[in-house]
Design goal:
single chain; alpha+beta; TATA-Binding Protein; 3 helices; 7 strands; elongated
Length: about 130
């Protein structure tokens, strides 16, 4: 009986694990489906907010990828990085010519959400814009 409990537990974890969409339009494995992203809006241009986002990722970890999602116009840019061994995705989108929205999403390599890291990075972007 004891030999069946561990394989049953492993099978249950594999079955319940899935994929979630990231803010950049890609997919990532997930074990929890809790809130993992934070948004903020700033009265700055798309380029200013994007450069602040790149600077924040580079100051806190490593920038892996910068790209423009194919299903959008040039008013959307995304980047992916690693901060504290967690995967971080940032989407910068122009709401109108004067307002830009940034969405920060963070998950561990096992797919566990980290809303505290998302919130911290989003606030650091705001501080970077204030400089």
């Amino acid at each position: 009986m004891k030999k069946l409990i561990f394989p049953a537990l492993v099978a249950a974890v594999i079955i319940t694990a899935g994929c979630v969409s990231t803010v950049s339009g890609t997919h990532s494995p997930a074990l929890t489906w809790s809130k993992d992203k934070v948004q903020g809006r700033y009265e700055r241009s798309l380029d200013q907010v994007y450069q602040a986002s790149v600077t924040v990722i580079q100051n806190n970890g490593v920038l892996l990828t910068e790209y423009i999602p194919h299903d959008n116009t040039n008013s959307v840019r995304s980047l992916q990085g690693k901060v504290n061994e967690k995967n971080v995705w940032i989407r910068v989108e122009s709401v109108d010519p004067k307002v830009t929205e940034v969405t920060v999403q963070a998950r561990s390599s096992w797919g566990v959400s980290d809303v505290d890291l998302s919130h911290e990075l989003e606030k650091e972007i705001a501080l970077q814009l204030a400089r």
